[in-house]
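Q: Sequence in, structure out?
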Amino acid sequence: MKSATPIWVWIAVIAAGIALGLGLRPLLQGGLGGGSSATESAAIRCAGPEGSELALSEFIASGVDGTSTVYSRRYQLERPGQVPLAFSAENPDADSAAIDCSNVRFGPGPRIAFTRAQSVNIIELVGPTVKSWSAGSDKTLNAVLLEPRWKLGLQLSDYRVGAAEIDEAGKVGRVALTRVKPEPAFPQRLNFTSDNGGSTWTFDKTSSLAGF
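A: Exactly. Output:
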């Protein structure tokens, strides 16, 4: 005749199972991505003028494009009395450095303008709207880079985009690509202008190539 298992044994087993399950739950959730994760920290945060309550944070993530490591960027603009505005940069690049805060301009008027690598970004706070432009995709500039007089020595990678300037009305804009290491055989500055607040930029060939 089989001996019956005392009921207190079954109660102990069930209680132990429940306790084990509750103890493992946070661990399992964390391992499966279902739990809370640490807040992602920005690579850099550029604060606006004192009292403006504006700030632009840049988040950088690495990835692989073929055999090369590339870096994608997304941004978050803090605005007083409003939810943060989040947006992404258009194209990944091979530069792991964070944006230079000296190339971030809060204003004039209700806008933020910032540049990095060969890209210009204008955020109009009214709307809001985000305008992005890259010198690397400018057809006129690319045609100049391939002109025979440069013998393929004029490279966009030798230039850095400076801070974009937009007038108070938000219409007229200027930005210049300045050569990192001066070289007499090539233009020192490649100048661009905009008449629509940075939606599009026009290469100023006359001022850029004067003397060449």
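The longest helix spans residues 7-31.
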